[in-house]
Design a protein that fits this description.
The complex is a heterodimer of chains A (402) and B (147). Chain A is 48% helix and 14% strand. By secondary structure, chain A is α+β, with helices and mostly antiparallel strands. The longest helix of chain A has 29 residues. Chain B is 21% helix and 31% strand. In chain B, strand 3 and strand 4 form a beta hairpin. The longest helix of chain B is centred in the N-terminal third of the chain and has 11 residues. Classes of the chains: A alpha+beta (402), B alpha/beta (147). Chains A and B meet through strand 6, strand 7 and strand 8 of A and strand 3, strand 5 and helix 3 of B.
């Protein structure tokens, strides 16, 4: 029997009721080892780019907010940047601060959600429960500022839709301070726990040159030693008005991806504090330019979303709707890099490696291992997570003495 | 040397039109036949990051914008080509130079019907595998629901 035939195919995905975008990973395994992978997407293609051509400039902001359920403000953020680049609009400083506060709060809640799921995959359900518990605090802040826990509808061409009033700022500051002990907790758990080290260090390595070749962005790139962050490189909103730094590590494994995300949360808090200080100094009320007309032309807008650079290109012919609206989400370039990162590792690491770029992790819950010759299901998604969790338990308890 | 000067020096007469919308947004028109060579220089020599490509259906042809980023300075440099053959639009693939361009070329192939010559894996990405041929949703006047 030749080598090709000995391979077993493990399909991961494509659907799960919880996931916000469907992906289908086809793992080719020989024994326990993953030797190749195919990625198929398109199960949730909604034709947003085409839809946007049929909507008014202002309506498109609401449309693109619905692209992603977890980082819902990233797309409208990049979209308003693009339209403002097209029309050459400079927004009021108050709006700049408010936009950055929303963008950073979202980064914290998205990273916490991811951290919880990563914890669940390696069998640390306590991390999962804690992480999601503290994520609720972030959602509370959102509710306090915008009235919504998700889909905040704050971004608007020429400004923001709601103000952050001065009397509310002390309360928001207090709520942000409450997040620090939670992040400390996760930082401690990740740096001290030898089992987490054993499961994540040296696993799913994406070397720098490969990362450049796949054009990856965000924490996936920064964990591989590529020093890019749109907030610093192409400053927009209030990111050049406050003090913060970009976190870069060099190993490219799952551990570094976790570390980058945890340390980024501290930076986000720093940015939020800086923006709130700035808001205190600015007079209230001036937060929207009330833009009515968009001239003909083209514009490019970028935003550093929790997963990396979101890219929007819009073209106008002077009418009230875009003639072309191109959208590139960070997962579009990050997910193909899994093809490299997952090779050579065991099936029990696959769930974690695929989750490490922070795609839509819930896909990994719907896994079926199929014996190619008998065409029979021998494993499902829960089994795969169980396999991963068992590996952690094994490391924890040490080798069995017979 | 400034990246813009370097590009001007290297490509010279290949640049058909140069537009600096603002210091961080640059648009450069080139011929479709030069795209692979220019991409090679940009990606390998000048170390620019490929962001994405945008395909647009125009009356006079198909326009493709190749967006590159210089992350040190925050510049986005967009190279614009216009394929005038509306019946059978074709261009060389850049995915042999940049692995990250594979998906977007597949997407433009299926949504706009532009053929990327030499692409290693030109199959459906977003649409289902048995999608009817010659039906390109992102072309103007297409993709409308039949009553």
């Amino acid at each position: 029997m030749n080598e090709e035939k000995k391979r077993t195919v493990i399909p991961i995905g494509p659907y799960h009721p919880l996931q916000e975008e469907a992906e289908f990973f086809k793992l080719y395994v020989e024994g326990e080892k993953v030797v190749d992978m195919d990625i198929e997407i398109g199960y949730n293609h909604r034709g947003i780019e085409k839809l946007s051509e049929s909507l008014h400039w202002d309506q498109s902001a609401f449309l693109v907010e619905r692209i992603c359920g977890i980082c819902s403000t990233s797309h409208p953020f990049a979209y308003v940047n693009a339209v403002e680049d097209l029309a050459g609009i400079e927004i009021p400083i108050r709006a700049k601060y408010i936009r950055s506060v929303i963008g950073e709060l979202e980064r914290i809640q998205s990273h916490m959600l991811w951290l919880g799921l990563a914890g669940h995959f390696i069998g640390y359900n306590t991390v999962w429960m804690w992480s999601w518990k503290y994520r609720e605090l972030v959602n509370d802040i959102f509710e306090f500022i915008t009235g919504n826990r998700m889909h905040y509808a704050m971004m608007k061409i020429g400004g923001v839709r709601r103000d952050i009033e001065k009397k509310d700022i002390p309360q928001i500051e207090k709520m942000c301070n409450d997040l620090i002990p939670a992040i400390d907790l996760f930082k401690g758990a990740v740096t001290d726990d030898p089992v987490i080290h054993a499961r994540t260090k040296g696993v799913g390595i994406l070397p720098k040159d490969v990362a450049i070749d796949y054009c990856v962005v965000g924490p996936t790139a920064r964990a591989s030693g590529i020093d890019i962050d749109i907030r610093r490189d192409d400053p927009y909103s209030a990111y050049n008005l406050v003090d913060w730094k970009v976190i870069v590590t060099k190993n490219g494994d799952v551990f570094d991806k976790v570390a980058v995300r945890i340390l980024e949360m501290y930076e986000s808090i720093k940015i939020i504090r800086g923006c709130l200080e700035g808001l205190k100094k600015e007079p209230e009320g001036n937060f929207d330019l009330n833009v009515k007309e968009i001239p003909a032309g083209e514009g490019i807008g970028r935003h550093e979303a929790p997963r990396g650079e979101v890219y929007h290109y819009v073209r106008s012919d002077g009418t009230n709707r875009p003639v072309r609206h191109k959208i590139r989400a960070p997962s579009y370039v990050n997910v193909p890099s899994d093809q490299y990162a997952v090779k050579g590792y065991t099936v029990s690491d696959a769930a974690l490696v695929l989750a490490a770029v922070d795609p839509c992790y819930c896909c990994t819950e719907r896994v079926a291992v199929i014996d190619k010759e008998k065409n029979k299901k021998i494993m499902n998604g829960f089994d795969l997570i169980k396999l991963s969790q068992e590996k952690t338990a094994k490391i924890k308890n040490g080798p069995k003495i017979l | 040397m400034e990246i813009i000067d370097e590009i001007k020096n290297k490509f010279g007469s290949k640049i058909k039109k140069f537009e600096e919308k603002n210091p961080r947004r640059i648009y450069i028109d080139i011929l479709p036949s030069d795209i692979v060579e220019i991409t090679k220089t940009l990606f390998v020599e000048l170390k620019l990051r490929f962001i994405i490509a945008t395909g647009i259906d125009r009356r006079d042809g198909f326009e493709i914008l190749y967006h590159f980023a210089e992350d040190k300075t925050g510049k986005v440099i967009t190279f614009r080509v216009l394929i005038t053959d509306k019946e059978k639009p074709e261009i060389e693939t850049i995915s042999k130079v940049i692995k990250g361009a594979e998906w977007i070329e597949r997407e433009m192939w299926e949504l706009l019907g532009i053929n990327f010559k030499g692409h290693p894996n030109l199959k459906h990405l977003l649409l289902r595998d048995d999608w009817p041929s010659c039906n390109y949703p992102l072309r103007q006047g297409q993709g409308k629901r039949e009553e």
